[in-house]
Structures are given as C-alpha cells and as structure tokens.
Amino acid sequence: MKKLVNWKEFIVLFIVIGCLYYITRSLWITSGILVLLLLIDGLLRQYDNKKKGERQAEEIKKKLED
After folding, report:
1. Which residues contact 10 (CB under 8 A, 6 or more apart)?
2. In 3D, which of 52, 27, 41 has the Cα closest to residue 60?
3. What confidence category does residue 2 fall into, taking pLDDT thresholds of 50, 70 and 90?
4. CB 33 within 8 Å of CB 22
5. For 11-51, what is each residue's pLDDT tens digit?
C-alpha cells in the first residue's frame, strides 16, 4: 500500500517547526506546541470529512426521492 505525501503540508510543517524552535529555543516546548497543532488539524479534518459525508448523503437521498 503506497501512501501519498502532501509535499506542501510537509514543507509547511518543517517551516513551522523551525520557526517555533527559533522562537522558543526549547525542543520540548516546540514538540508540545506541534502536538497540539497536529491534534487540532486532525480534529478539523475529521469534522470536515463528516460534514462532506452528510452533504453527499443528503444529495443522494434527494436524487433517490425524485
């Protein structure tokens, strides 16, 4: 199974890591902030996918009723 890498997100992630480390000068604080950002990103993606799925289900239901 081949996993596709989103290179734009990968580059942005490393820029954010570099900037956070430059600002905090602490690997632990940088890691903690990064974990929080990735957690928030995952929750927002999950919410967005759920909303898209609900919209698609409603569209299919309307097409079947017509």
Report:
1. none
2. 52
3. low
4. no
5. 998 999 999 999 999 999 999 999 999 999 999 999 999 99
